């Protein structure tokens, strides 16, 4: 039915939004021109040009993100002022930079998300646009300030949560809800813990908070960038597009298995081993394992000098070891102290032996001369070096830890549980990563190895710079005079290499991910309940300012080493100075499915409350009992059936069932349709089986089915029993 007033307004809104796109296109063209101008710049050093190009590229990228849904709403204030809200800000340069379009992160945009009928925040009306591409299809209005007369306009939200899922997560800027907005804009600079059941938007909120922080604290945040830690590469891939769609790129995405540069670990330990390695008590084991590598010789070792043979025995080594340990330096750095003491003791013994019968220690001058000769010989004594290196070896975290795991004797010497033993010491698991990171500090720097590596790097850079200079010289005819001067007269290759290092051409994310000592401005931890105490130590090292957004759900924890409460995990780093917020509404799972999942939750975590679904789908989840030989066919039927529908689907099952993925792999993800296979075996698999089943059941945005061979577990109720489907080409279970 046509409504003349509405139609007229819709025409006006369409014209306004079309004008915004025209302005965007003009700004884009200008930004691109500035970018190309920067690329072709002459008369500046390569470093300066690099910085300028980067800055222009960022400016162009900011404008490129806004093609879909540039403007998604409008706020009308009681004062009569009208503000359009969108993904980015567009301003009128000729009119005091008045906004044509206000960035959703700007403080003035806040009422768009939080104003309600009861608390209108000086607003009269909120208007939400429904857009496809660049076109406004229609809009819905919500009148504020008249409680009882208006209710929250949920049309846009329901359209968003009902839409079939595509590839990866989408941003939610157009429909952020008030309880979420409060968290996104929270001013607290320290540790913020956000807890909420499945589908409450924890991940979405954490990512939008990153965009908000990068917008409001650009200066501080962009220096170190932001680190987002997630449970699996698949999950990081799933969420990877949200921040770029909001125009943010200075963000590093890593799993806990990637936290040590150079390693990409996904393998897991058995739960009991993961628990051992995840607990802080492993710190004593690591310290003992390092001490165990500071050895004493079982038998005295002879060291031949020109005039005499001296023995390095346990007594001598013990004295040198005590001095090195007393230095308080990390193992590799204390090597120099150990060596200096040992050499000095060897020299004393040599002089005493050479002077036996004719030289008295009271003969200070002569004794010192002889000692100096011996020391000179010992300074380049390879055999002694070999002996001392064996007693106090230079260690890397990898050699130390692999050596520990592979040796039952060393495990015992370190006072560790024999369960740590494994035949291949270097078969790294995610639980080893924080231990390797800890050992970087415990072992300290091996300066000789570092000097060699630095020399190799410098040579490679000089070679690269020499190549650049060759190119510059080739092009001299085309270059301005001052650049020719720079290229030919002022710089040599090494100098130029120095400049390249200063202005590292890699972008922030690359540099940060490759540098173990990088410190981030902010860290987001998703599925934080899975992290062990040792994982937290690594993360705090990466963010000494302790600026964290931690999102998780203790009820979904599957790791044996994970958190059972937030307080004890955080106490070592921030005491009780952390802020807690809860999300309560489930935007993913329809009420019918949540009722089933809630039954499971009630059995294994009676104190936890499931979140309330924002909608019902009208579709009941189903179950079907199958015989052993029917299972594979039934899975295939589901997959085929879903392939004909919009959206995504997944089959989750216990280990060893072909065509299924484990619940752990689906963590944090969502699918339009989920088939859970053999829930009874998922429940029985491991100490956290019930949490795994809960995670599996709560991945669905629309449809849930369950296939079982044994009777359904008692906790799984409320499923509609589906009959055997007709054997036709295209089957439906409901
Ligand atoms: N305000 C919102 N508007 C539209 N969609 C939303 C909103 N909040 C959350 N969603 C959607 O709900 C779904 C679940 O969000 P998200 O994955 O962030 O939840 P979660 O709390 O991290 O879940 P889990 O604990 O199961 O990993 C996503 O599709 C997300 O886009």
UniProtKB/TrEMBL annotation:
An annotated Gene Ontology molecular function: hydrolase activity
GO CC entries: cytosol
GO biological process, one term: recombinational repair
Organism: Amycolatopsis rifamycinica
Domain UvrD-like helicase ATP-binding: 175-590
Coiled coil spans: none
Keywords assigned: ATP-binding, Helicase, Hydrolase, Nucleotide-binding
Name by which UniProt lists this protein: Helicase
């Amino acid at each position: 039915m046509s409504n003349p007033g509405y139609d007229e307004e819709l025409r006006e809104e369409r014209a306004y939004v079309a004008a915004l796109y025209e302005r965007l296109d003009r700004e884009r063209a200008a930004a691109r021109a500035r970018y190309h101008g920067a690329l072709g710049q002459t008369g500046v050093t390569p470093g300066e040009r690099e910085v300028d190009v980067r800055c222009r590229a960022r400016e162009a990228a900011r404008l490129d993100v806004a093609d879909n849904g540039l403007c998604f709403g409008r706020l009308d204030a009681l004062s009569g002022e009208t503000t359009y809200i969108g993904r980015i800000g567009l301003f009128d340069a000729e009119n005091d930079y008045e906004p044509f379009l206000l960035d959703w992160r700007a403080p003035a945009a806040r009422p768009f998300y939080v104003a309600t009928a009861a608390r209108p925040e000086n607003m009269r009306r909120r208007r939400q646009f429904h857009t496809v591409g660049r076109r406004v299809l229609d809009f819905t209005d919500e009148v504020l300030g008249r409680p009882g007369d208006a209710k929250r306009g949920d049309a846009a939200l329901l359209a968003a949560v009902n839409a079939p899922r595509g590839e990866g997560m989408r941003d939610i800027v157009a429909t952020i809800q008030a309880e979420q907005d409060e968290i996104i804009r929270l001013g607290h600079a320290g540790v913020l813990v956000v807890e909420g059941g499945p589908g409450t938007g924890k991940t979405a909120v954490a990512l939008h908070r990153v965009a908000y922080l990068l917008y409001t604290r650009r200066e501080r945040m962009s220096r170190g960038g932001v680190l987002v830690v997630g449970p699996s590469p698949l999950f990081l891939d799933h969420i990877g597009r949200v921040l770029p769609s909001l125009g943010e790129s200075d963000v590093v995405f890593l799993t806990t298995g990637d936290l040590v540069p150079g390693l990409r670990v996904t393998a897991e330990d058995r739960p009991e081993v993961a628990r051992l390695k995840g607990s802080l008590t492993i710190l004593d084991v690591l310290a003992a394992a390092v001490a165990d590598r500071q050895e004493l010789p079982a038998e005295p070792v002879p060291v031949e000098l020109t005039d005499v043979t001296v023995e390095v025995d346990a007594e001598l080594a013990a004295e040198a070891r005590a001095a090195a340990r007393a230095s308080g330096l990390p193992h590799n750095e204390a090597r120099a102290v150990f060596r200096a003491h040992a050499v000095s003791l060897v020299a004393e013994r040599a002089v005493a032996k050479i002077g036996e019968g004719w030289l008295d220690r009271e003969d200070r001058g002569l004794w010192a001369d002889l000692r100096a000769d011996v020391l000179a010989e010992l300074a380049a004594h390879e055999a002694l070096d070999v002996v001392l290196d064996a007693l106090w070896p230079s260690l890397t975290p990898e050699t130390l830890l692999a050596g520990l795991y592979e040796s039952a004797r060393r495990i015992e010497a370190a006072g560790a549980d024999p369960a740590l033993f494994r035949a291949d010491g270097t078969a790294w698991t995610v639980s080893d990563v924080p231990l390797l990171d800890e050992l970087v500090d415990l072992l300290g720097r091996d300066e000789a190895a570092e000097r060699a590596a630095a020399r190799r790097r410098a040579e490679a850079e000089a070679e690269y710079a020499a190549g650049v200079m060759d190119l510059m010289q080739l092009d001299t005819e085309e270059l301005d005079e001052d650049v020719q001067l720079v290229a030919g007269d002022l710089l040599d290759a090494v100098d130029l290499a120095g400049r390249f290092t200063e202005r590292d051409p890699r972008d922030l994310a690359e540099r940060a991910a490759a540098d173990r000592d990088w410190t981030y401005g902010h860290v987001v931890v998703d599925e934080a309940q899975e992290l062990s105490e040792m994982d937290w130590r690594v993360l705090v090292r990466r963010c000494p300012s302790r600026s964290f957004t931690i999102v998780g759900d203790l009820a979904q924890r599957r790791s044996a080493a994970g958190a059972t409460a937030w307080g004890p995990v955080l106490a070592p780093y921030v005491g009780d100075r952390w802020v807690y917020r809860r999300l309560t509404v489930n935007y993913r799972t329809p009420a019918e499915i949540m009722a089933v999942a809630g039954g499971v939750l009630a059995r294994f975590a009676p104190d936890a409350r499931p979140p309330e679904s924002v909608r019902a789908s009208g579709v009941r989840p189903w179950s079907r009992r199958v015989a052993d030989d029917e299972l594979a066919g039934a899975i295939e039927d589901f997959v085929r059936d879903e392939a004909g529908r919009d959206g995504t689907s997944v089959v989750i099952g216990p280990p060893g069932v072909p065509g299924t993925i484990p619940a752990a792999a689906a963590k944090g993800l969502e699918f339009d349709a989920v088939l859970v296979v053999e829930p009874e075996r998922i429940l029985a698999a491991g100490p956290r089986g019930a949490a795994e089943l809960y995670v599996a059941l709560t991945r669905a945005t629309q449809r849930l089915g369950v296939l079982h061979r044994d009777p359904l577990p008692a906790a799984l109720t409320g499923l509609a029993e589906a009959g055997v489907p007709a054997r036709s080409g295209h089957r439906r279970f409901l």
